[in-house]
Design brief:
Helix content is 1%, strand content 58%. It is mainly beta. Among the domains are: 93 residues, Ubiquitin-like (UB roll) (Roll); 200 residues, Outer membrane usher protein FimD, plug domain (Immunoglobulin-like), CATH 2.60.40; 64 residues, Outer membrane usher protein (Immunoglobulin-like, Sandwich); 79 residues, Immunoglobulin-like (Sandwich).
């Protein structure tokens, strides 16, 4: 008998589960580790009542396993518990954190990347024109800043001051002086800036800056505004199970979030430089709460560990600034400054300069020992045995602050600036202590200064500020020359903030043997624009008063006023703003000290534009609006409000985040396009409306749906469009739509008879 005669014997029956290998059952399971879903599938082998996995896969989950093992069964790991959910194909594993090496989670990370900076090409002229007339004489002055900018080309700027004035016989005279001219090129990826032209040398707290004309290159952290440059207090903890985390700084909640099981790092960001306390509250899924309190001291004088701040300058000293336009020294000077965060508690400083027959070099340190305030020290030497040394200590707490510093030099110490002006002080001492108790602040200060060849002068002062109820505050101060008894001044002031904008002030002051009194009412202009006013009355030898009104709009600011001081009276007016040439158009704007944007809606007029969710204006007849209050290098959110757009216009996007480059402008486009749209009424040959839900195919885009009364909204239409309609029962009909040549908004066309398709 042949096997084919017994079909049942042709294929032998299975002797094992096809999923079973020689080592056990193969499973691919979702893994939940210590209450946290890992969102990964892992291969396990089921051997009897235990699950085993490759050691490499378990290490990938964070397990710490002895070397050499290729497979590891879960029950062989000490302290591990697991459950296998057959229906969900999931394994839940609980294991002590000590047997895991999990990555540290970073919470409340203060740093973030900024939007890539961009710039358009254009010209900008800031102007400030002031005119006054009094006692038969007049004067007019104008301050101008001309700025040119382009993508990847930096900013070229020039400032100048022009003045016209009358002398006693009524003759007019005029002067004009150039102030600063420079080209500045920024490299935000490395926080580096190159400046060619008028600039300053670098400096530290124990050296002096010098105005030069030349080349400077160095660090500018403003190019990375979201980079943290100072050490921040950090808490390192570990959660045994998924938990919620809350951070309180001086009693104010600063962060709340979730953390999985494992180690985590939480950063506190104090609002001011001071000592304080932070609390971390950890609450697990069972409601169990643990609280950890740790003290901190924040100091912006310190650099974060590993961070460098440096600059190098070479040029000639600028002389008679504001008087002569091109007066520079003959000798070249150079300087270099370098600061580095050695640790989060120690920052080292160095500075060297040479030129004009002089040279100095010095070292300094800023240290935060054990969170107990900031200690600084410095030593610098110059040619011919000159030396300067300084030291200081400062501490700022919630209720008290204190600082003490001194800087001294011998008679031979001279820096580069000494060749063009006064030498450094021989002795400079300062001390300050202040207290904050409830609604009051008070304290005392002391200053001692001695310049070369002069006697020392010493001053001491007291101050107090008290906030009363209903927006009323009182402040008083006293300053006394400790070397001249008659040199004494007192001040007493009472301020009443009527609302968020209007403030009334009454004050009295005595300076030596003169007494003054002032009544003042002020209603400043809001940043968004509008009107403001200021009225003041004075008593004493300079008795008189002033009154002025001002207005700020998107095209500039205007202020007018009149003042009387003793026997003299004068009137004045000031106008400031900006002229911008960009994108082939000219604009007037308020003064632009930083960056700006040109918003374009591609020709759509009267579209509201928002900056940081606040309305800032509407587009003009060309669909353009200049928005002047942007921050360079930072994220600025611009948007348009399309609610008033006609029904036949479409917008591709309604908001955008931009980061203009240094003092430049960027074009932000919100394309608004007009579409040929219509509301068509479709009917059967007998005039009854087409069935509700019929589909209309125009051959351009998605089909439209027929609504009540046979109406359908159609867009992207041509002059003549064949409509193919499919009724709900599947039958079809066709009709032709003719779009009017001069249609506006949303024309209503029809009724259009739809005839059966051939």
């Amino acid at each position: 008998m042949h096997a084919l005669d017994h079909p049942s014997d042709a294929i032998p029956p299975p002797t094992m589960d096809p999923r079973m290998g020689v080592d056990g059952e193969d499973l691919y399971l979702e893994v939940v580790l210590n209450g946290t879903a890992t969102e990964r599938l892992m291969h396990f082998t089921r051997r009897g009542q235990t699950l085993c996995a490759k050691a490499a896969d378990l290490r990938g989950l964070g397990f710490v396993l002895p070397p050499g093992a290729d497979m590891q069964c879960l029950l062989d790991i000490q302290g591990l518990r697991y459950s296998y959910d057959v229906g969900q194909q999931r394994v839940t594993i609980d294991v002590p954190n000590g047997r895991l090496d999990l990555p540290r989670r970073i919470l409340n990370q203060p740093e973030r990347s900024a939007t890539k900076a961009s710039s358009g090409t254009g010209l900008l002229l800031n102007y400030d024109i002031y005119a006054a007339h009094g006692d038969g004489q007049g004067n007019v002055s104008g301050l101008a800043e001309l700025r040119a900018f382009s993508e990847n080309m930096g900013v070229l700027s020039n400032t100048s001051l022009t003045r016209r004035y009358q002398d006693a016989d009524g003759s007019w005279h005029g002067t004009s002086v150039r102030l600063d001219t420079q080209w500045r090129l920024s490299f935000p990826d490395s926080s580096t800036v190159v400046t060619v032209g008028d600039t300053f040398t670098g400096y530290t707290s124990w050296s002096r800056a010098t105005r030069i004309g030349g080349v400077a290159i160095g660090t500018d952290f403003a190019l990375q505004p979201y980079r943290v440059t100072t050490p921040l207090p950090q808490f390192f903890g570990e959660a045994t199970a998924p938990s919620s985390v809350e951070l309180y700084v001086d009693g104010i909640r600063q962060y709340t979030g979730k953390v999985p099981a494992g180690p985590f790092q939480l950063t506190a960001v104090p609002a001011v430089d001071q000592s304080g306390q932070a609390q971390v509250v950890l609450t697990d899924a069972l409601g169990r709460t643990s609280t950890v309190t740790f003290p901190f001291y924040a100091a912006r004088q310190l650099l974060r560990a590993g961070l460098n701040d440096w600059s190098v300058e070479l040029g000639t000293v600028r002389e008679a600034y504001g008087i002569n336009s091109f007066d520079y020294g003959d000798d070249p000077v150079g300087s270099g400054t370098w600061r580095r965060g050695m640790t989060d508690q120690l920052t080292l400083e160095s500075h060297a300069e040479a030129g004009a027959g002089r040279s100095t070099a010095g070292l300094g340190a800023v240290w935060n020992p054990f969170g107990a305030g900031v200690v600084n020290a410095s030593y610098a030497a110059s040619r011919n045995g000159g030396a300067q040394y300084g030291a200081g200590f400062s501490w700022s707490g919630r209720y008290m602050n204190f600082s003490l510093d001194t800087l001294r030099s011998n008679a031979r110490y001279r820096d580069v600036a000494s060749s063009y002006g006064a030498p450094p002080p021989r002795e400079s001492d300062r001390a300050l202590i202040g207290f904050n108790v409830r609604e009051s602040s008070f304290g005392a200060n002391y200053v001692r200064l001695r310049n070369p060849g002069e006697a020392a002068s010493r001053y001491a002062g007291l101050f107090v500020l008290r906030n009363l109820s209903r927006g009323i505050s009182i402040n008083a101060s006293m300053n006394q020359n400790l070397d001249v008894h008659a040199d004494r001044s007192f001040f007493l002031g009472l301020t009443w903030a009527l609302d968020e904008r209007t403030t009334y002030t009454a004050s009295a002051q005595r300076d030596r043997d003169q007494t003054f009194g002032t009544l003042d009412a002020n209603h400043p202009i809001e940043g968004d624009g509008g009107f403001g006013w200021h009225v003041q009355g004075r008593s004493g030898e300079a008795a008189g008063g002033l009154g002025e009104v001002g207005w700020l709009g998107n095209h500039g600011q205007l202020t007018m006023g009149a003042s009387t001081i003793g026997p003299s009276s004068y009137t004045y007016a000031d106008a400031n703003g900006a002229l911008v040439l960009m994108g082939g158009h000219a604009f007037t704007a308020r003064r632009i000290d930083d960056a700006f944007a040109l918003v374009s809606t591609e020709g759509a007029p009267d579209i509201p534009v928002l900056l940081e969710n606040r309305r800032t204006g509407v587009t003009d007849s060309n669909g353009l609006l200049l928005v002047s209050r942007l921050n360079a290098w930072q994220d600025n959110r611009l948007a348009i409000d399309p609610i008033d757009l006609p029904a036949d216009e479409r917008v591709q996007r309604v908001d955008s985040v931009v980061a203009p480059a240094d003092r430049s402008g960027v074009i932000v486009r919100f394309p608004v396009t007009r579409v040929r749209a219509a509301l068509a009424t479709l009917v059967e040959p007998d005039g009854t409306p087409l069935a509700l839900g019929s589909m209309v195919d125009t051959g351009r885009g998605e089909p439209a749906i027929v609504g009540y009364d046979g109406q359908a909204y159609l867009d992207n239409l041509k002059g003549s469009t064949m409509l193919i309609v499919t009724r709900p029962d599947g039958t079809r009909c066709t009709t032709e739509l003719i779009y009017p040549d001069h249609a506006r908004d949303l024309p209503q066309l029809g009724p259009l008879p739809c005839r059966p398709s051939p």
